[in-house]
Write a structure and sequence with these properties.
Blueprint (H helix, E strand, L loop, with lengths): L2 H11 E4 L4 E4 L7 H22 L3 E3 L4 E2 L14 H23 L12 E5 L3 H13 L7 E5 L4 H11 L6 E6 L6 H16 L8 E5 L4 H9 L3 E4 L13 H9 L4 H14 L9 H12 L7 E6 L7 H13 L16 E2 L11 H6 L4 E8 L9 E3 L2 E2 H18 L4 E6 L4 H22 L7 H26 L4 E2 H7 L6 H13 L4 E4 L9 E4 L2
Parallel strand pairs: 5-6, 5-7, 7-8, 8-9, 10-11, 10-12, 12-15
Antiparallel strand pairs: 1-2, 2-15, 3-4, 13-14, 16-18, 17-18
Helix pairs in contact: 2-14, 3-8, 4-8, 4-11, 9-14, 10-14, 11-14, 15-17
Length: 529
C-alpha cells in the first residue's frame, strides 16, 4: 500500500474520543471491507448480548451469578435498588475510611498514624491494584503499599523484613471473596504470625475485603478487625479493580478514585455504541479476531511507551487469558480458544525482543500504548530541538513503521496522559473488548473452570502429603518409595510422592532420604521428627 493510500486508511480507521482525548488506530491491521462486512452480524449479536449482560442476565452459569462490573462506575444501571445502594455506600465508606486513616483518626494502637499497607490477594485481586499503584501512586504517598500475591514464604519474609519497625504502623488488607482461597489465606496467616512475633494485635491492623457472610467476613467481625468491605458475587476477580478490591488500596495511596470511576464510566458509554467503527472496544475485538483468524493463532504483544504503564501488559495478561482461554464453546464443542498476551515496555524492548518481532516468527500482533504528555514541566534538550520524550515518540513511530513494512500488524492506543481518569478508561476499554471477542468466538468469558481444576489438583497433592507423612511417622524401619506409595494407597502417584519428599527434606521437615538422589527408585525414606 503506497503512502497516500495508507494515509487515507489511517483517517478511515482512526477512532477519536474528544471527551477523553483518546485515540485508537487500527489502520495497521490489514483487514479489508469484506472482512468487516462478514463480521457485522456477529457484532450485532455481541452488542445484544452485552446489553443483556449489563441488564443483569446470568452470565456465569457455573455459579449462577450475574456479571456486573459495569454497574460499579454507574450504579444507576444496577438491576435493583439494593445493588445500587450497596455500590454507592461502599464507595462513600472507602473514601471516609481512607480519609480517617490519613488524618490519624483511625490509627494503630502503638503509633500515631498508619504509614504502610500490605495488600494480600491473588490474581485480579492483586494484579489490578498493583497496576494502578505503579501507574498512579504519588512519589510520596500517605501510605506506601506492599503486595503479597503468592504463597512463597521467602517473598512474604522479604515484605515483612523490609517493613522492620514499621510493621507496628502497617495496615493489612486481606482480599478474598470466599476467605478460603489458599494464597490470600496463607498470606494472612503468615502476616498474622509476624505481628504476633512482635507482640502486635493483628486485628487492630486488619481489614477484610470479602463476600458478605463469607468465612473471612465472619472471622473479621468476630475478631474485631478495623473494617470489612464487600466483594459482591457479581464481580469477578479480573474485573474487580473498580470495586473495593481496587478502590480501597488506591484511596489509601491518595489516588483519586472518583476520577478512575469517571473515566471508566465515560469509556463504558463510548463502548455501548452499536457500531463497529464508532466503538473502540469493538474495533479492538475486530482486530484481535482478524489477527488470529478467530482462533487465537497469533499472540498479543503489548508495548506501553511509558514507565508508569509497566504493569499494564501483566494486568491484561490475566484479563485476556483467563477470560478467553477456554476449552469448550457455548455449545460444548472443543475449541481451545484464547489469546496469549505478553509484553514489557518501550523503548526497553527495542533492545530486547523487537529483533525477533521484526525478523523472527510472525506469530503475533502488537498493541502500542502511546502517551502524548512527556512529563509535568519542561524538558531539557538532548540534541538541538530534541528532548528525551521526542526520542521515545520516535522509537514508537519508528518501530511501528519498521514492523509494518515487514508485514507485522499493530494497533496503537493513544492517551493524553497517565492519570486516574485515563487509567479507568483503559481498564473499561479492555474489559469490554474481552466481552465482545468472547461473543464473537462463542465462549463464556466470565467463568474459569481451568483455574478451579488447578486448585483441586493442588488440594489432592496436599492430601497425599498428609497421608505419606502419617505412614512415615508410624513406620519404624526405612521404606523404599514403592513401599511407601503402597502403604499410602497411592501406587500410581509415586513420582508425586518423590517430589513431595524432596521438598520436605529440603526444608528440614523430618524426612530422611538415604541413597542416590539421582536414582529415586533406590532411595530409602524414614522420618526423624
Amino acid at each position: 500500500m503506497d503512502a497516500a493510500a495508507l494515509w487515507q486508511r489511517y483517517q478511515d480507521w482512526l477512532y477519536y474520543h474528544p471527551g477523553l482525548g483518546f485515540y485508537l488506530d487500527v489502520s495497521r491491521m490489514r483487514f479489508d471491507d469484506a472482512f468487516v462486512e462478514k463480521m457485522q452480524p456477529h457484532f450485532d449479536r455481541a452488542f445484544q448480548e452485552m446489553k443483556a449482560l449489563e441488564g443483569g442476565a446470568i452470565a456465569n452459569p457455573d455459579e449462577q451469578r450475574m456479571v456486573g462490573h459495569y454497574w460499579l462506575r454507574d450504579p444507576e444501571l444496577a438491576p435493583n435498588a439494593e445493588i445500587e445502594q450497596e455500590i454507592v455506600e461502599t464507595i462513600d465508606r472507602i473514601e471516609v475510611f481512607a480519609s480517617k486513616v490519613h488524618s490519624g483518626e483511625i490509627k494503630p494502637p502503638t503509633a500515631p498514624k498508619f504509614t504502610d499497607v500490605i495488600s494480600i490477594g491473588i490474581g485480579g485481586s492483586a494484579l489490578g491494584p498493583q497496576f494502578v499503584a505503579e501507574a498512579l501512586a504519588p512519589d510520596f504517598p500517605p501510605l506506601a503499599i506492599h503486595f503479597i500475591d503468592n504463597s512463597d514464604p521467602d517473598g512474604i519474609d522479604r515484605i515483612v523484613s523490609k517493613l522492620k519497625d514499621r510493621l507496628s504502623s502497617t495496615l493489612v488488607l486481606v482480599i478474598s471473596k470466599s476467605g478460603g482461597t489458599p494464597e490470600p489465606r496463607n498470606g494472612a496467616i503468615e502476616v498474622r504470625k509476624a505481628f504476633s512475633d512482635r507482640n502486635l494485635d493483628f486485628a487492630a491492623h486488619a481489614v477484610a475485603i470479602t463476600g458478605t457472610n463469607s468465612h473471612l467476613d465472619q472471622q473479621a467481625k468476630s475478631e474485631g478487625w478495623l473494617a470489612t468491605f464487600p466483594m459482591a458475587d457479581w464481580v469477578g476477580g479480573r474485573t474487580s479493580e473498580m470495586s473495593a478490591v481496587g478502590l480501597l488500596p488506591a484511596a489509601l495511596q491518595g489516588i483519586d478514585i472518583r476520577q478512575m470511576l469517571a473515566g471508566a464510566k465515560e469509556m463504558d458509554v463510548a463502548t455501548r455504541t452499536e457500531g463497529i467503527k464508532t466503538n473502540p472496544a469493538a474495533l479492538l475485538a475486530l482486530s484481535w479476531y482478524f489477527a488470529g483468524n478467530g482462533k487465537g493463532e497469533k499472540d498479543m504483544v503489548v508495548l506501553p511507551y511509558k514507565d508508569r504503564l509497566l504493569l499494564f501488559s501483566r494486568y491484561l495478561q490475566q484479563l485476556v487469558m483467563e477470560s478467553l482461554g477456554k476449552e469448550k464453546d457455548l455449545d460444548g464443542n472443543t475449541v481451545y480458544q484464547g489469546i496469549a498476551v505478553y509484553g514489557n515496555k518501550g523503548s526497553t524492548d527495542q533492545h530486547a525482543y523487537v529483533q525477533q518481532l521484526r525478523e523472527g516468527v510472525p506469530n503475533f500482533f502488537l498493541t502500542f500504548i502511546e502517551v502524548l504528555s512527556d512529563r509535568q514541566g519542561t524538558s531539557v534538550e538532548i540534541d538541538p530541538g530534541i528532548t528525551s520524550g521526542d526520542y521515545l515518540s520516535g522509537f514508537l513511530q519508528g518501530t511501528r513503521q519498521a514492523l509494518y513494512e515487514n508485514h507485522r500488524d499493530s494497533i496503537t492506543v493513544t492517551i493524553p496522559q497517565v492519570d486516574p481518569r485515563m487509567v479507568g478508561a483503559l481498564i473499561a476499554l479492555y474489559e469490554r473488548a474481552v466481552g465482545f471477542y468472547a461473543s464473537l468466538v462463542r465462549i463464556n468469558a466470565y467463568h474459569q473452570p481451568g483455574v478451579e481444576a488447578g486448585k483441586k489438583a493442588a488440594a489432592a497433592i496436599l492430601d497425599l502429603q498428609t497421608r505419606v507423612m502419617q505412614v512415615l511417622q508410624q513406620e519404624k524401619a526405612p521404606l523404599s518409595l514403592a513401599e511407601l506409595a503402597e502403604k499410602a494407597g497411592a501406587t500410581e502417584k509415586i513420582a508425586a510422592i518423590y517430589q513431595l519428599l524432596r521438598h520436605l527434606d529440603a526444608n528440614h521437615r523430618g524426612v530422611v532420604l538415604e541413597g542416590d538422589r539421582g536414582q529415586p527408585g533406590s532411595l530409602k525414606v524414614s522420618f526423624n521428627g
